[in-house]
Amino acid sequence: MEHNNRTNEAANTETKLTKPWIRRHPMFAGFLLFVIALIVVGVLYYILRIYFSTFDRSEQGYLAYSMPSRNGEYVAEIYGVPYGGAGAGGVTIWVDVRSTGNGSAGADASFVKTIYRAEFRGANHLEWENEKTLRIENRNEYNDDSVTLNIDEDIYDGWNFACKSLRMKGEYVRCLSPEKQ
Q: The whole model's pTM is what?
């Protein structure tokens, strides 16, 4: 009988040693799998966010400056949207073109289109060259994100996300970015 107990103990010890690692440490294995899943999701988000980017600022920011077009049909508005913290933060500049509904074309008064996004450089200015062409100045001594855009066809993205975005392809005819100018 004693011999039989020793054999059972040896078999139990051997069984415990041959259990898979995951079954021996289920809490640690679950935590490890959770961390790996978070890393994979984070990497996928970082890679794919460019391709699914939009010009949606979700009504964030403050209106910094606006300028009506020459015939009063449109109003160009610059919004500043702060990001980051005190040390590493900054401001993103967005330019929306809004229809006033007071034009010869009788444009829809609810028409709003974002045509510009870039890092705030220090000197901002809007100037209408004609009824459909807007000059946006955004520059400092080191960087110049100034551009002239046709409000019906063009957009400018200082990060070049909108130009690569699959969701934005139908929103513009020409997408400009610092590399493509």
A: 0.72
